Structure formats: C-alpha cells, structure tokens
From TrEMBL:
Spans traversing the lipid bilayer: 20-43, 55-77, 89-107, 113-134
Designated name of the protein: Cell envelope biogenesis protein OmpA
Source species of the chain: Flexivirga endophytica
Key words, A-Z: Membrane, Transmembrane, Transmembrane helix
Entry superkingdom: Bacteria
Record flagged with keyword Transmembrane helix: yes
Length: 142
C-alpha cells in the first residue's frame, strides 16, 4: 500500500516598490551638475564666489551637492519605510532643510551679495533637480 503525500506551498505575494537607491544616485549626480552649472554661470557673470578672500572651487559645489543629495535619498528611504504618508513628510522636511541651508550663506560675514545670491541659487537648483525626482519615486511606492 502506498501513500501519496501532497504538499501545498503557500506563496506570499510581496508588493514591489520602485527602486530608490540607484535613481537617487542619478538624481544626486544631476543635482551636482546643476550646482556646478549655477556656480559656473555666476562666476562667468562676475560673481567672485569667495569666502573671506578664498575662492570656492567649482568642484566643491558638485561635491557638496552630491553628498547632501545622497542624504536626501536616505531621508526619502526613511520616509518610505517609517511614515504612513511618505510623500508629504518628505516634501515638508526637504522644504524646511532647503530653507535652513540658506542660513550659512546669509550669515557668513565675508561674502559679497553676488556670491550670496549665487550660493542660494545653487541650493535651489539642486533642490529643483533632486526633490521632484525623489517625490515621484515615493509616489510610485504609495
């Protein structure tokens, strides 16, 4: 007498979320390029881009924009993971952080007005590239 054993595997459907890390790195690179373009255009227009007599190198704009944009990607990932409304939380936090990023540009004493405007415009350019892209990825996940 032979027995037949039937095993039923339960399959679990795991919803897939759109990737955030690689698109975030690409967006960060785009933000770094945007910051460099703004700084280059400002320098070409005559803004000295100096702090206390020291010129700010163009690669510093790209480097800092890339690093802080990657922190924005981490913030987006944290919002997606821990928040019930990740898009709204992400947008409020990034808006506040962009506004706060203006404070050093406005309060550092040895910067002329043209350099201040260029620095603030570079913050806005990076935000204009990175934030909408990350927001779109978060909306796809919702």
């Amino acid at each position: 007498m032979s027995e037949v054993l039937t095993v039923h595997e339960q399959s679990r459907v795991v919803p897939t979320r759109p990737a955030l890390w690689w698109p975030g790195v690409a967006l960060s690179a785009g933000g770094a390029i945007a910051a460099s373009l703004v700084a280059g255009a400002a320098r070409a227009a005559g803004a000295p881009l100096e702090v206390a007599g020291e010129a700010i190198p163009l690669f510093a704009f790209a480097q800092l924009a890339f690093i802080f944009s990657l922190l924005g990607v981490v913030l987006a990932a944290a919002c997606r993971r821990y928040s019930r409304r990740p898009v709204g939380v992400f947008l409020r936090m990034t808006f506040a952080l962009v506004v706060l990023s203006f404070i050093p540009d406005l309060l550092t004493p040895d910067i002329d007005a043209a350099s201040r405007v260029a620095l603030i415009c570079s913050h806005i350019a990076v935000a204009a590239v990175v934030i909408p892209g990350l927001e779109a990825r978060l909306r796809q996940a919702s």
